[in-house]
Amino acid sequence: MKELGGRLLFLDRNDINTDEIIPARYLNEDSKLALKPYLFEDLELPGFDRTTSLPGKRVVLSRANFGCGSSREHAPWALEANGIRVVVAESFARIFRRNMYNCGMLAAEVPARVVAELFDRFSGTDTELKVNLDSMLLRFEAKETGALEAPLSLGGFELAMLRSGGWLDFAATRY
Amino acid sequence: MGQTLAEKIFASHLVEMPFENTWVLKLDRVFCHEITTPIAIADLVERGVDRVFDPGRIKAVIDHVSPAKDSKTAEQGRALRLWARRQGIEDFFDIGRNGVCHAIFPEKGFVRPGYTLVMGDSHTCTHGAFGAFAAGVGTTDLEIAILKGVCAFGKPETFRVDLEGSLPAGVFPKDAILAVIAKIGVAGATNKVVEFRGPVVDAMSMEGRMTLCNMAVEAGGTSGVCMPDATTVDWLWPFIGPAGEGEFASKEEALADYSRWKSDDDASYAGRISLDCSALEPLVTTGYSPDNVVPLRTMRGTRIDQVYIGSCTNGRIEDLREAAAVLQGRTIHPQVRGIVSPATQAVYAAALEEGILETFLKAGFCVASPGCGACLGMSNGVLASGETCASTTNRNFSGRMGRGGMIHLMSPASAAAAALAGTLATAADVAKGLSAPEPAKQEGTK
Predict the structure, then answer these.
(1) Residue pLDDT, tens place only, B344-382
(2) Containing H/E element for B141?
(3) How far apart are CA B37 and CA A92, in angstroms?
(4) Interface of A with B in 94-123 (CB under 8 A)
(5) What is the CATH number of the domain that holds B367?
(6) B133-166 confidence digits (pLDDT tens)
(7) Where is the Aconitase/3-isopropylmalate dehydratase large subunit alpha/beta/alpha domain (chain B) (predicted)?
C-alpha cells in the first residue's frame, strides 16, 4: 500500500482541470517521472507559486469537480512524481477519480462544509493530514489551529484499490 | 420498471460485481491512440504480458500529432505502430490513412448499438451516438482493457436531455450542446450517462448526434447516448448489410434488432432537463469553462487572431460544408489566420471532391492534415500568449491551445463568420455585410 497523508497544498478553486494539472504539451513524455517538473505549470491561482508552494506537500485540498477534462492519467502520475498521493475535495470528475484509485492513490470526497472550514481555518498554516483506513477517518492538524476530523467514506472498490496498490494487480489475478 | 439504454447494456455485458456499485463489464471494442497507449504497452511488456485480449476487437490510430512533430511524438507513433504489427491488430490507421479517433472509428463502422467500448481519451463519449456505451478511461484502465477485455464502472445512472422543437436556421448541434452544458454545468452529469432525446435528435444526422455526445464529458458525463434508429442503420448499412458483413438482409431487419437497445418508456432517470431548441440562437463560450456560454451577438466585435475548424467535435464533412457555405466566394480578414483540419482522410477527400477545400483555400485558410492538432495545443495551430481563437473544438480551458491563449467555442458556421469579420460575428451578420470594427494596427507592423 502506498503511503497516504502529509502536508497540505491549498488550491482554493472549483473545476481545476487536467490541463492545469499537466498541460497536453507534456503528453509526449515517455515516463511518469519525467512529468515531475511540469505539475500545475498552467495553474494560475492567487498565492500559488510552483517553486515555493509545491516542495514538501503530500496532499492537495481543493473544491468541487477537481480533475475535470481529459482522461490523461498523467494527472495523477504528475502528482505522484511530486510526492502527492492524496487529493481531498468536495467532488471529483469521474475519470480523474478512477485514475487515482487505479494507481492506489486516494481521492477523498468530503462535504462542502468541511472543505470550507479547512480553507477558512487552516489555509496559510502548515497543515498535516493523517489518513486512517481502519477507523475511516481523516485528521487535519496544524499547530496554530488545532485539529479537525472528518469521516472518510469509501466503497469496497476504492478500499481494495488502496490496499492492493491499484487496478492492475487486482484485475490481473481476477479476469 | 423499465430500463434505460445504459442499464440494458450494463446488464448484458456484466462479468461480475466484485463490490457494491462496481460493474465489471465485458468490452466489445478497445480503441487506442498514440498518446495514452504507449505507456500502457510499455507496462505490459515490463510485466511480461505483452498480449492483447482479442486483436480483432482492438482498433488503433495515430491522430494526436500527425505527422509527428518531433522525436518524442515520432517515438510514440512508432510504439503504437510496432505494437499493432506484433499483436496482429489489422485495423491500425497510420499517417495518411488516419483521422481523429472519434471520427475515423465511426466512419469505419466499428461502433454498433448495444456495444461497450473504452479508449484512453475523454471524448470517447462521442461513440454513444450509435446507441453504445462509450467511456473515456485512463491508461491503467486501458491497459487492463487491452489485456483482459474488461473495465469497471459505477452504477449506470442516466441523465436525460430532451431537445424539443427544432433547430432554427443558422443554429447547429454545437449550439444545442453548448446550451445544454450551460444549463446543467460542467459537473451536472458527473458519473452519469447523458441520454439525448426528442424531435431535434430524431431529425439530426449521425454527425450532429456525434457532436452532441462528444461534449457530454464537458458536463461530466461518462458517455453520451442517442437511441438507435433509421438514421443509425443508414450510416451502418455499408458495414452490416449484404455489401458488408451481411449481418442483416434488410434495413428493416437491422432496425428491428437495434430497437432492443432503446430506453424503455417507463425507465427511470437520475436527472432530466428539457430544452426548447426553437428558441436557440448561435452561442459562444467566454472565459475558461465550457459552461460559460453567452449569445454570440453579445460578443460581437471581440477581435480574434486565429480560427480553427476541426476536431472530434466539429471536423466532419457536414461541419466543413456548414463553414464553407458561409465562406463561399469570400476571403478572410487580413489579420486572421484560418486553419481547417478535416477530421479524417475520407473527410478530406470528400471535401476535395465537393469543392469545399477550394472554398477554404480561396478564402485564405491553411488546410492542415487530419488530427487533433491545435485542439489540445500539441501541434498545427498552437496560440501565442495573449492570442484569441474562434474554435469549433470542445474545451476552452486556460492554456489548452497554447499558454496564455483564449479560446471561444462555437459552431463551424460561426467560426467561419469570425474568420471573415476578424471579430466574433454571426453568420447572419456576415451575410448582411455588417462590417466589423477596424482592428487596431498590430505592434511591430509598419
Answers:
(1) 999 999 999 999 999 999 999 999 999 999 999 999 999
(2) helix B139-148
(3) 24
(4) 94-95, 98-99, 102-103
(5) 3.30.499.10
(6) 999 999 999 999 999 999 999 999 999 999 999 9
(7) 7-422
Looking at per-residue pLDDT, the higher value among A172 and B244 belongs to B244
Q: Is B70 on the interface with A (CB under 8 A)?
A: yes
B44 vs A contacts (CB less than 8 Å): none
B268 and B295 belong to one structural domain: no
Q: Is B74 on the interface with A (CB under 8 A)?
A: no
Residue B440 pLDDT > 90: no
**Contact between B65 and A28 using a beta-carbon 8 Å cutoff:** yes
One domain, residues B300 and B380: yes
Inter-chain residue contact A28 with B378, CB threshold 8 Å: yes
How big is the CA angle at B133 (ends B130 and B136), to the nearest 5 degrees? Answer: 110
The residue range of the domain holding A102 is 5-174
Cell numbers for B210, please give them: 456525434
Mutate to test the interface with A, among B80, B141, B142, B181 (most CBs of A within 10 A): B141
pLDDT of residue B1: 87
Give residue B129's identity as a one-letter amino acid code. A
pLDDT digits (tens, 9 = 90+) for B86-140: 999 999 999 999 999 999 999 999 999 999 999 999 999 999 999 999 999 999 9
Tally of domains in chain B: 2
Length of chain A: 175
ipTM of the complex: 0.96
A27 touches chain B (CB under 8 A): yes
The pLDDT of residue B50 is 98
Tell me: do B308 and B384 sit in the same domain: yes
